[in-house]
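In this section we walk through a basic example: taking a raw amino acid sequence and producing a predicted 3D structure, encoded as discrete structure tokens. The instruction is simple. Fold the sequence below.
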Amino acid sequence: MVKLEKMLFPTDFSPYSMIVTEFLEDLKNAGVKEIGILFIVNTARLSSVSGGFDLGRYVELEEKRAEEELPKILERIEKAGMKAKVVKPFPSGDPVNEIVKSSKSYDFISIGARGRGIFKEILLGSVSEGVLRRSDIPVYVFKSRTEILESGVKCYKPCEDLFARILVAYDFSKHSQKCLEYATEIAKRTRGEMILLYVEEDGKDKKDNLKAVAEDLRAKGISVIDIKASGSPVKVILSKQAEMKATTVFLGSRGLSLPRSLIGGSVSDPVVRAVEVPVFVSKGPKE
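The resulting token sequence is shown next.
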């Protein structure tokens, strides 16, 4: 049985990363009981700095900033009825390395990402993308609608009920089966509707019985819409998400040592960049 009880929440306190905290009630309903808050002193960005830079002072100021911001997050998490734990001492270094290293005792990672139209890099710098590629556990990437104001960037929730309509990209592989297990567990807990989507690529139908998978889910008490479509998986997933007003997308991804699959990096990467709702990327084994 898949577990989603312990969540790692990396944050730099930016509006992009803090969008995760807008969904605390939904995450609790999905089974999250404990959240680890991870702040990293990003020294990787200092690699080009030379001459006279006081690294110790920089680390001290960043840690002070974290100590000032963390109580607000702790209060929100505890108010939502979950345990909160700050990862200490604050690690310093490359954020991707530190997030992956700190994730070993957690069930999944939730990380914020930049909204479309703000920067060319759709993801939160290279951090979200790096974590997606290197993590051995599922990664939930939270997108937000963004607006640039005189006071800075404002992020808006992309949906009100995170698990109201869960779109699952399914291709009958063991990797997408693992993703379906996560989505099934959440749908059972939250009573969300599932949209089970299978895409025939280049007219090649695997002839697997999507209806049988959907019926099995219905027997578990889940409301399911099963859809079989043809075309580019990325384009179909994006268009069906918009058409069906899915509030979140679930994708499977293979381990790093495997070639990219139908629902692997070649699909999950562009979907995460382009879709306007949060994307849960489950992880398959490294073979």
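Looking at the output, two observations stand out. The longest strand covers residues 193-200. Residues 115-125, 255-264 have pLDDT under 50 and may be disordered. In the next section we compare this with other chains.
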